[in-house]
């Protein structure tokens, strides 16, 4: 478990456990609804519903059993989460990466991501990839700052998104 201090507050990063499922599910609903609301307020085109908003509790539990799921906590409250799924030999998919809206823009997502990269290094992962919207400049800058490069784009989900790759060394 990693512990970090930020603005005199203590945050812990740990592997999630099955009993965290409901709290992780609630965090995903809160964070992705906030993201979708901000996205749709800034666009005059068709509303896009992120698939994370349709995720069921059973899917969170399935990820907890099959994949690496990390959480960042403030005391006992889960404030951020991400999931790492091995999609081929030593290549992982970063998915459902979210920080509670009231904790955003404090470096906590970066903190959680750095812990994930350390975990991937320990298991000799070679690549980490993710899909993300290309319509949010702040998000693009965030992933570039974490060392990701956009390799290709598509509109398969109803919005422009990119396939981002990071080499793990």
TrEMBL record:
- N-acetyltransferase domain location: 11-169
Q: Name one GO molecular function term.
A: acyltransferase activity, transferring groups other than amino-acyl groups
Keywords, in A-Z order = Acyltransferase, Transferase
Highest taxon above the source species: Bacteria
Q: Name one Pfam family in it.
A: Acetyltransf_7
**Which PANTHER family does the entry mention?**
AMINOALKYLPHOSPHONATE N-ACETYLTRANSFERASE-RELATED-RELATED (PTHR43877)
Please report the name of this protein according to its UniProt entry: Acetyltransferase (GNAT) domain-containing protein
| Species name | Halanaerobium congolense
């Amino acid at each position: 478990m990693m512990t970090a201090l930020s603005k005199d507050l203590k945050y812990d990063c740990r592997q999630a456990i099955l009993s965290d499922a409901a709290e992780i599910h609630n965090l995903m609903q809160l964070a992705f609804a906030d993201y979708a609301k901000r996205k749709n307020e800034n666009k005059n085109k068709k509303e896009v519903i992120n698939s994370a908003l349709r995720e069921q509790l059973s899917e969170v539990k399935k990820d907890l059993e099959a994949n690496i799921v990390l959480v960042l906590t403030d005391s006992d409250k889960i404030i951020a989460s991400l999931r790492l799924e091995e999609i081929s030999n030593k290549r992982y998919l970063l998915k459902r990466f979210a920080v509670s809206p009231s904790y955003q823009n404090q470096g906590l997502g970066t903190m959680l991501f750095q812990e994930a990269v350390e975990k991937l290094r320990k298991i000799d992962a070679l690549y980490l990839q993710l899909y993300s919207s290309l319509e949010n400049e702040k998000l693009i800058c965030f992933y570039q700052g974490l060392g990701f490069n956009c390799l290709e784009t598509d509109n398969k989900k109803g919005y422009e998104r990119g396939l981002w790759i990071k080499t793990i060394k």
